[in-house]
Structure formats: structure tokens, C-alpha cells
Amino acid sequence: MLRPLSFTVLAAATMLCLAACSSAPADDPTPASSQPATPAATVSTPAAEESTAPARPTADFAGDWTGTAQQGSSSHGVDISLIESDGGYSGTIRHDELECSGTLSDGTVSDGVLTIQKHIDVNGTCIVDLEVTLTLVDADSIGYDTEVSTGVLSRVAQQ
Length: 159
Description:
This protein has 159 residues and is mainly β. It folds into 2 domains: 5-50, no CATH class; 63-155, Beta Barrel (Lipocalin). Helix content is 13%, strand content 45%. Strand 1 (63-71) and strand 2 form a beta hairpin. The protein is globular, with a radius of gyration of 29 Å. 15% of the residues are buried.
């Protein structure tokens, strides 16, 4: 179990003080400060305690997501449905205003980021094949990025 850094520092300081501040026996005329100090215990702190970077949320992209993506000066709706299977992701995507929809496949997650391939089957005005990057912001929102649009999607609550 990891202890908070302040507790570890306090414990180390207490051990050092006890070792350095102990007095000599009453019949020993040598002052306490010249007595050899008892070696202090080595205190190490795990690297995880020293890191100030916030932890990324657990990568759980499975489910339904909806939001708006900005493409140039216009915006359009994005609806994604993702399933996780054997450590990878796949699903469907729909852009109602652009009158297109398709599949998402070959999704892999690394450090809270899902990279997945989009292939449009029903094409209105969409680019047929694009790589989509989804970045987990928190348990209920993801960043949506392609080479032509960007946005934020929210998890659709299950009823």
C-alpha cells in the first residue's frame, strides 16, 4: 500500500531527529552533538507518488456516444456505438446532417486513446475512409478527432 508522500517525509524526519537529538548518558561528559549518530533508515518513495500528472481515466470506450464535430466553419452531429471484444473495439458511426453512416473497425487503445478506422458505407457527403482518434476525457466524455473534424462526444445514458 502506498503511503502519502507527506507521511513518508514526516517519518524520515522523525527518525533523523531521534538519532541526532538523543542525549549522551549522564556519566558521559561528551555532548550529545558529538556522539556518533545512529544511521537513519533509508526511506524511498515510489515514482508514482512523486508524479504530479493526473491519472488518465480507465479506458472504457464501449457504449453509445453522441455530440457535435466542427469541420471548418460548419458543424455536424456524430453518433458512435462501440463494442469491445478481445481487447479491441469496433462499431458504427452516423453523421445525420451529412447523410452518411458506416462502420468502425480495428480499434486499439493506448494510454487512454482509441485509434479506430472509419469506413463509410452509406455516403452522402462524407470522406469514405478515415482514421478516427477518440481520447477519453472522463467516464462520460471523449474527444473526437479526424483529419477533417474535431469535437467532443458524451456517453448516452443507458435506460
